[in-house]
Amino acid sequence: MDRSVGATGFPRIDTVATVVTVTVLVGIVLFLGVVLWPAYQRAHWEARVIQCGGNLRAVGQAMRAYANDYNGALPVAGGKGARWTGHLRDWSAPDRSQAFAPDSNGSNAGATVSSSLYLLVRYMQLDPKSFVCPVDRGTRFFRPERYGMGSRGLGDSWDFGPDPARHCSYAYQMVYSPYKVTLAAESAFAIAADRNPWIEGPAGVDRAGEFSSFVPDLPGFRGTGKQADLGNASAHQRVGQNVLFLDMHTAFEHRPYCGCQDDNIYTAWDGKDSVRGKLPKPGCQPADARDSLLVNDPPASHR
After folding, report:
1. Which end of the chain has fewer surrounding CB within 10 Å, N or C?
2. What does the pLDDT read at residue 295?
């Protein structure tokens, strides 16, 4: 006789109990999965946001130390009259002149945004890991030996390698302009943040085509939440961005218009408003000394 049935042909009680127990356990597992998995994902995302913000905070601390050594001035590489060109002549050159190639007068050198940030590595010994946001796709921390530098170390370079976009996740104030930023400026001035969403990053995502759909959700603009989200950094699922302010505190801002007087930190002045602005492009400048314009260098493939 089949041991799973009794004399009456019905399943034994112990077998029924086993089936019920397994069914209950499966139900509990499914229930916990539905309830706990989103919470786990949320906690994991928040941990990455905190880690990314912590790295940016370390950059701010190094900036303050640098500025204290240079009469309150924030890092600017390339010398007097340097221009933002998006690449250096030679990031591994033995001296500054060969790296930035200034003219015969020692000015008009070609520089990158990242080379200004690299001064914190070169002179303040900041770990290159601090410049990588863990959720910024396509990036990893800079190691000179990967590019044939041999025994030469971090202090012998002038930038984060031949393609600095792959080793620097953060946008920095456009310091190659008539407006020099010092520690004496307003504490609410935004000086660095997660990568600019309108400049293609190393992951190859070009969002500039979405700019026409970006509408702020402030009075006078009437944008929806989704339209406003388009202006946020890509690294954090367009929910917001870590921002470093001039008083060197960081905050996770849910909208990019968080600078002085609702200045949009990621867009250039368009002559009309500072909330939406226009796409940042080579040659763009801050509108004035209070205008945050945070940019990063495009990948090497765009040179």
Report:
1. N
2. 97
Q: Residue 137: which region, alpha, beta or left (left: phi > 0; alpha: psi -120 to 50)?
A: beta
d(CA 255, CA 266): 10
Give the per-residue pLDDT at 4. Answer: 53
Check residue 10 and give its pLDDT. 53
Determine which helix (DSSP H) or strand (DSSP E) holds 114, and give its type and residue range.
Answer: helix 113-122
Stretch (H or E) spanning 54: helix 13-69
Put residue 221 in one of left, alpha, beta given phi > 0 → left and psi -120 to 50 → alpha: alpha
Over residues 1-29, the mean pLDDT reads: 63
- Do the strands 170-173 and 190-194 form a parallel or antiparallel pair, or are they unpaired? antiparallel
Which pLDDT value is given to residue 302? 66
Structure tokens at 232: 């946020």
Angle between helices 13-69 and 113-122 (to 10 degrees): 90
